[in-house]
Design goal:
Helix 3 packs antiparallel against helix 4 (87-102). This protein has three domains: 2-54, no CATH class; 57-102; 117-173, no CATH class. It contains five helices and nine strands, in the order E-E-H-E-E-E-H-H-H-E-E-E-E-H. A hairpin with a 2-residue loop joins strand 3 and strand 4 (43-48). It is an alpha+beta fold and 174 residues long. The protein has a four-stranded antiparallel sheet. A three-stranded antiparallel sheet has the order 7-8-9, covered by helices on one side. The longest helix is centred in the middle third of the chain and has 18 residues, at 66-83. This is Reverse transcriptase Ty1/copia-type domain-containing protein.
Amino acid sequence: MITHFSTESLTGTNTTEITELMACLDSTFKIKDLGRLHYFLGLEILDIPGGVLVSQRKKRQRRNSTASSHILQKISGKLNFLTNTRLDILQAAFHLLRYLKQDPTLGLHLTKDPDCSIKAYCDSDWASCPDSRRSVSGYLVLLENSPISWKSNKQETISLSSVEAEYRSIRKVI
């Protein structure tokens, strides 16, 4: 059960504890229970069997306004210019547009399992850039098997060994 009030939200599996906490907060502060959480910080929260789905469906639908279409026209014009010489950019742009159009309800599926798991994976290669000899490292963080953070980039400094490159990769995740 997820409940929110004002700009704060309470969540948990034990409704008795949530009710007691809300009563305690209400005795100290003036709060108003707004009921079940549907939107929070621009994210749409949908109750589905076995958990919740966190998506930005409404945000995508709202972007179809005239102001947004003007911005999209400017961006597509710039991309169109780049695609004259870079076919890979054209393919990436079309891939992104098809992905966004296919299903606006795609999002993070979070289960109601009380044992919420967070997993992080990282890796790096050693001196893969032939010009600078800098290593490339990346990481992926999963919340209940849904990706919530990821990044891949060249390391800022040159690593003197593969162990040092791996250590720098781990440090980025933590």
